[in-house]
């Protein structure tokens, strides 16, 4: 099988899992030279494989409109080139690394209107320190809800839009070829190999980098943003389970630990484990960030016989021990 993005953070763990299960793996990654936008290279890469696990992507929010062409070129055009090559080669199984960011703010529950999709948070509210998105119909506070795969999709930044476009392209390919697609909507992945000190690093990496410098982690907003932090080895196991078990139709799967935690909790846990300074809650914000996004991973557990195995506390302790 072909693994794209195999030299990346998640890709390295997926390759280890594939190797451990006896798969014959071919890797295509930008770090090795050409990438998935090069038709000739991709044609060679897909020749003779029985499945593709597509992880190669540009990550990060894409907070500037000038980022749009790069996300569209790397993620969407690259995926289109890969899918076309798969069709020419007769490869009919795809596992696609998607993301929970396709849901936007996910779902909230209003006491008056039930389950609703929170509206985007206006800049004026963020500047005033009003971080919780209200009900779009009445303005009442919302309780947070776990998001299932059939929830409305609402990408709110360049990266999110490109990941949803990848899903749509893959579904179109599947309809045309009879192929199968498992789109894995990863949550906030952390663990060994987490990239640090880059514009695209996840929040756990940014916090840990600050602590390594002896600085306090800077927590945006009020630290109450809810996320699902899932260990990279669990993500790799889910990815390989999808490769081995899903072989018909188009299906999305949320990949999370099942236990929502706040960003402030993550920062405090890392600080305590490292023995570093107490996190600073800055009140700063980024337009395009979502307040809460935590999804239900019951479908993945039921259909692919997967369950997370790394406890949050153990995963944080392992991360903190790394050099």
Please describe what this structure looks like:
A six-stranded parallel β-sheet has the order 2-1-3-4-8-13, with helices on both faces. A three-stranded antiparallel β-sheet has the order 6-5-7, with no helix packed on it. The chain has a two-stranded parallel ribbon with strand order 9-12. 37% of the residues lie in helices and 16% in strands. With 323 residues, the protein is an alpha/beta fold. The protein is globular and about 55 Å long. β5 (107-110) and β6 form a beta hairpin.
Question: Helix segment count?
Answer: 10
Computed Rg: 20 Å
Estimated helix fraction: 25-40%
Low-confidence stretches: none
Strand portion, in percent? 15-25%
- Class by alpha and beta content: alpha/beta
The profile of the biggest β sheet is: 6 strands, parallel
